[in-house]
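Q: May I have one protein plus its fold?
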Amino acid sequence: MKDLSSIIISIFKRKGGEGKYTKIINEQNEEEYFDLLKIKDKDEKILICYKENKDFVLITNKRLITNNYMVDYFNIEAVIIAMQEEFKSNILNKKKFTRLKLQDFDGKNYILKLEEGKPYNGIYQILEFISLRNRENKN
């Protein structure tokens, strides 16, 4: 898979944006995320980080990394709004949603918790773009 860094950042800015806990990583702020940046591979670039308390989500140029799992982009088949999980938490307003459900090509599901609002929308659109691209490439 080619490097999608510029596309990912562009989608995030256009369809969502930064929030209180979700930031685009650049030279000015990367030191704040130094401990998390150690997780990445040497040739991997961290593009976006959501960090609140012990929860984190890293969007890189190759994969999605959370405090619970890692998913390579080429293996993401689908992303949907995790409605059941939101409703179980009594969240009914879509502007307050924070969870997405990822499904990989092996049929495994992952729940992703994000910052509500613009960050949620931006990351959802990034993952939707990647999953659509993957499904097209499988055909």
